[in-house]
Amino acid sequence: MSERARAERAKGTEAKEKRRAEGTVKEEARRAEGAAREGTGGPGEGVAGASSVRRSGGSGGSGGTGGTGRFRRERVRRRLPPLLRLLIATQFAFNIGFFAVLPFLAEHLGGAIGMAGWLVGLVLGLRTFSQQGLFVVGGALADRYGVRPVVLVGCVLRIAGFVWLGYAERPWAVIGSVLLIGFAAALFSPAVESEVARQAVAWEKSGGGSRTSVLALLSVAGQAGAFVGPLLGALLLSVDFRTACLAGAGVFVLVLAGHARLLPQRIPGRTAAPGGGGLRAVARNRAFLGLCCGYGAYLLAYNQLYQALPGEVERAMSDQAPLAWLFALSSVLVVSVQLPVTRWAARRLDLHRSMVFGLLLIAAAFGVVAAALPAGLTGVPGLLPGAGFVVLLTLGQMLVVPAARARVPDLAEEGRIGLYTGAMSSLSGLIVLVGSALMGALLDSGLPPAVRWLALAAAPVLAIVLMPGRRAREREAGVRGGADG
């Protein structure tokens, strides 16, 4: 081969290599453009998710951006560790069994058993207090002994409580059964919620995505169960209340069997908390106590779905049947828009402002009913104020709950997330216990209905005043090394 031929051949080979390299670069560019179109920063996004967390200002208040809600939820489910997936599914199952019974309890107590309004309010308050008020016990036990034994014992007690409630006909038996039902949840709920929070923080630190998105997904699972539960309960009530209670117990039998098989004996990275001293530290933590005030006001307002709303539905329709559909409306809203609302709040609000905005929406929910009552609407138009109440209350819940849960790990001492998770619910339960009795007396009073609903709106507004101000938040941010809060 001549020198000229060899030179031309070498030149041709070089040109081919150049074209191949250019094609590779273009292909990489197309892939990068496609990834950008999919959106980054949400849970399950790996390194991209971590970079979005950094762009949005650190842990706690950050959330994903971009992407559709359905796409983001599917990415979360595929990427979350197996333990987180199990715990989130647990929340779904718990709420199916619980909400098959609870929405219809007030009507059962007032109608079939004939309790006075103040006593119905007290029973509902005792149920909430025995649950929320004793969360601190369940949380401390979970810190000390682990998640598995606490969850399993709680399921056994919930089964017994539902069976007892189904056969209870005297006030003392009703009170005993609802206390047992509440204490069961005081065991398993803080164990599950605190471990989800701990796993969410670890997942965030590993670059998986923001903790608020995981905690929002926990709310989505809970509300999906709260959607299925009342529909199941309404169907079973066509037989009787006892059948609904036994069906709720049956759900927890399945939960007990599943967790006895699937829940790990030991969770990696979890160590037993030291005994003593935890409650004193909780009592001295002003930022945490302020957080409890805000969360307690939300719970008191949410309790009105079972205390005040049934009376409003009865006034408008002379029937309790639409109540199940209003509960379903709340659940559908959370399932469909909780994650988009969480991402929106992460881009525009820190965790404190998210709670304030949520509590204002809750106050407005009561105001809507108060404004409409003087018109005296009945029938389907008369249900619209109640529907507006449910929508605004649920939107407020979507902002308050993930933000409150996301702040707990940053305020808790090392190894005591369960205690602090439980303490937040316990202090909030105390607020609900006192508030529910007062609200029951208020609803039975001779005051005009509009005045009663305006009085209900005062609780979330007062909580905003009691929550820690700017200086407390700055001190908290300093403790966490500049993370938002």
From TrEMBL:
Main location: membrane
Major facilitator superfamily (MFS) profile domain residues: 83-475
Entries under Pfam families matching the protein: MFS_1
Keyword Transport in annotation: yes
Amino acid composition bias (Basic and acidic residues), ranges on this chain: 1-36
Membrane-spanning ranges: 83-106, 112-129, 150-167, 173-192, 213-235, 241-262, 283-302, 322-342, 354-377, 383-405, 417-438, 450-467
Subcellular locations according to the entry: Cell membrane
Domain of life the protein comes from: Bacteria
Listed InterPro entries: MFS, MFS_dom, MFS_trans_sf, MFS_Transporters
Signal is among the record's keywords: no
One of the record's GO cellular component terms: plasma membrane
Compositionally skewed regions (Gly residues) per UniProt: 57-69
GO molecular function list: transmembrane transporter activity
Region named Disordered: 1-72
Keywords tagged on the record: Cell membrane, Membrane, Transmembrane, Transmembrane helix, Transport
Protein topology in the membrane: Multi-pass membrane protein
Protein name: MFS transporter
Organism: Streptomyces minutiscleroticus
